Amino acid sequence: MKLEKKSKHSDRYDLVKRGGNSAVMEAKKTIAARCYRLKSGHALIAKYRLRIGRRKDMKCWWCGHEYQTRDDLFKWCKRWKREQKRLWVDGQEGDDGYEGVEKVFKKLKISLPMSLVFAEEKCLQALMDFVSCTDVGRISGVVEEAENSDHEESSDGGV
Ligand SMILES: [Zn+2]
User: Fold this and answer.
1) Is the entire prediction scored with pTM above 0.85?
2) Region 91-99: what's the mean pLDDT?
3) Could you say which of 28, 34, 49, 101 would form a disulfide bridge with 55 (CB–CB 3.0 to 4.6 Å)?
4) How far, in Å, from the CA of 13 to the mean position of ligand 1?
């Protein structure tokens, strides 16, 4: 009788195990990618969408502010107030905690250009966390306007 060595078995087990982790890894990669696009300026924000001709204005689709820029989203957009407070002021406690960006720089957010914050390694975790908790730079929540949609919604009867 020949004993078959089931070398495949452990391989498969390993794959399953990896499959379990890869969902988490994938999520992290997606967030890192979103962070990177926001850093490079090629993200899904109105300012960039206008530049590449996908929108006709820079209006923020969350708070209605006239200019949705990276600065606006990370600092001022009303939709992400809570997340902004953690990013700039509170930071996060615990093992993978981090300091608020204002503490890292010892400056207020109004005097900190986002390019500076993105370039600071100590702020990376805070930025990643902010991005993961918000839809900033993500497809979802975006109302894309067709270039030729110049009709106005005339019926706003609700007073
Ligand atoms: Zn906004």
Assistant:
1) no
2) 91
3) 49
4) 47
